Amino acid sequence: MTTQHNTLTRRVATMALTAGLFATSLAWANDAPRVKFDTSMGEILVEVYPDKAPKTVENFLQYVKDKHYDGTIFHRVIENFMVQGGGFDASYVQKPVRPPVVHEGREALGKGGSKNVVGTLAMARTNDPNSATSQFFINVKDNAFLDPTVIPPGDPVAKFEFGGRTYENVPRANLVNNPQLFGYTVFGKVIKGMDVVEKIKATPTGPGGPFPGDAPKTQVLIKSATLIK
C-alpha cells in the first residue's frame, strides 16, 4: 500500500511539474508582441520574437506604430514560394523608409529561432544582407534555401559544406562576410489567418506598376496594421 501511495505521489508530482512547464511555455508565447493585418482578403494575426531578433522586431514594430503599412499592398506573390508586402502603396509608389536594420538571421537561429518554414515572417532585402527596411514576406512553403548558414567554429574553418560542395581550411572572414551565406531573418510567424495567406498566394498575378510579373491582378491591400499587445 505504501509503495502504491509513493508511486501515485510521484505521478501526481510529475503531472504537476509538466503542467507547470506547459503553462510557462504558454506564458512565453503569450508575451510575444502581436500585430493584426486587416487586408482586403481578411485578417492575418502575427506574433514577433524580440528575444530572437531584437533589432529586427523593433524596426518592424516601429513601422507598425508609424502606420507605414496602412494602405500598402502585397506587391509580389509567388504561389509556391512566398507573399511579400510592406513597401508600395496602391499606386505602386514606394513609401519612404528609415535606414536599414542590421541582419540578425544567424543570431536568431543561434537563440532557437525558426527557419524559413511555412507561415513564418521574414524580412525582405536586396543582395546586401544589411539592407532590410520595411518590406517583409510570409513563407508559404518550407524555403530552406533562404535560411542563414551557421558558420562552424575555428579560423580557418577546417571543413565547410555548402551547395553540395565541401571546402577545407577556409579563412573564417571569407565565410562570415559572404553575402550568399546570410540568408533571411525570420522574426515572427502567422498565428491566425493562414487561410487568408493561402487565398493571397492563390490570387492570379501578372505585371503591375514597375514589376514585370508576380503582382496580383486584383490588388491585395493592407488596410491597417495594428499592434494589439
Describe this structure in words.
This protein is of the alpha+beta class and 229 residues long. It folds into two domains: 1-31; 33-147 and 183-227, Cyclophilin-like (Cyclophilin). It is 27% helix and 31% strand. The strands form three sheets. Strands 1-2-9-5-6-4-3-12 form an eight-stranded antiparallel barrel. Strands 7-8 form a two-stranded antiparallel sheet. A two-stranded antiparallel ribbon has the order 10-11. Strand 7 and strand 8 (165-170) form a beta hairpin. The longest helix has 30 residues, at 2-31. It is globular. The N and C termini lie far apart (52 Å). The model is unreliable at 1-18 and 21-28 (pLDDT under 50).
Give me the secondary-structure category: alpha+beta
Count of DSSP-assigned helices = 5
Rounded to the nearest angstrom, the distance between the terminal CA atoms is 52 Å
CATH superfamily of the largest domain: Cyclophilin-like
Kindly provide the name of the CATH class of the largest domain.
Mainly Beta
CATH architecture of the largest domain: Beta Barrel
Question: Roughly what fraction of the amino acids lie in strands?
Answer: 25-35%
H and E string: HEEHEEHEEEEHEHEEE
Q: What Rg is obtained from the alpha carbons, in whole angstroms?
A: 21 Å
Low-confidence stretches: 1-18, 21-28
Q: How many β-strand runs?
A: 12
Taken together, the total number of domains comes to: 2
Mean pLDDT: 89
With strands numbered from the N-terminus, the spatial order across the biggest sheet is 1-2-9-5-6-4-3-12
Biggest sheet record: 8 strands, antiparallel, barrel
